[in-house]
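Q: Structure tokens for this one, please.
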Amino acid sequence: MGIDELNRVALPVTAAEPDHVFGHGVTLALDGIVAELRGVRERWRDATRRPREIGGRELPSREALADIVASLRGALFPMRLGPPDLRQESEDYYVGHTLDVALNRLLAQVKLELGYHARHGGPPDADIDAHALSVVRDFGASLPAIRALLDSDVLAAFQGDPAARSVDEVLVCYPGIRAVIAHRIAHRLHRLGVPLLARIVAEISHGETGIDIHPGATIGAGFFIDHGTGVVIGETAEIGCNVRLYQAVTLGAKRFEIDADGHLAKGGARHPRVEDDVVIYAGATILGRIVIGRGATIGGNVWLTHSVAPGSRINQASTRDDSGNDRAGH
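A: Here is the predicted structure, written as tokens:
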């Protein structure tokens, strides 16, 4: 039964039928639960000044975006991440058809986000349909450049992991590559002014891979996350070209500014800048708006809150003074 059919079916929940019978004679008073949940929703809507009028869904769909990203992966790498029965003579047809469906579905999600922002304190949008179409056209036009960036990421993974037997193995198996594919898509959406869609895409990937990359993070070509579990890259992090990270690396904020009302201040550059050709080993924590110079190597489990010069080799011992006290914040 489709959603339209469900909307036409009357399913009354009334006080005349207070109990709903389950197996083994168990009854649950669902009417009361439904009524209390409605009351909680209404109080929340009143407290947050949400409209009470009846309408459709106003937020983008996580499920729809998961399907869109899966289709985009297939369109970007049709013979390896596309359908198993695809043949090369049908490759262009598959890519065209898949993009037609995926981008039209993305258009609907962009409209939802733009409408949501316009209703909840964002700048007025005179023509949401035209704005959404412009976003999706720009996104579609960027897909060849995204594919070229991803080729550099896949090659970096193959060259950087002695266990990798082929670039194909890297593409279809490595969670770090799956996370980077999602990030390249999410970052473009973020730059095009739909940050909620971008964040949903990023968090779907986070759940799948254990790798948490904020879509606002800027990452250059040839990026490789080896193993990957537990990696965290913050919103304002900037990562150069040919950078390699291992599992459980954090590129985070050292402290958060407080506004006049005592709330965390939004925005502001607060995450590290990592220059080209840097390697950061497992478990390293790098915090604050510091610079990791070109060609530096950061050892495993290092806690670092100060900038390091290009070509530096930093390990746990080099971040402590003779008394054993951490001096990383100096």
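A few notes: The longest helix spans residues 91-119. Residues 253 and 288 are 5 Å apart (CA to CA).
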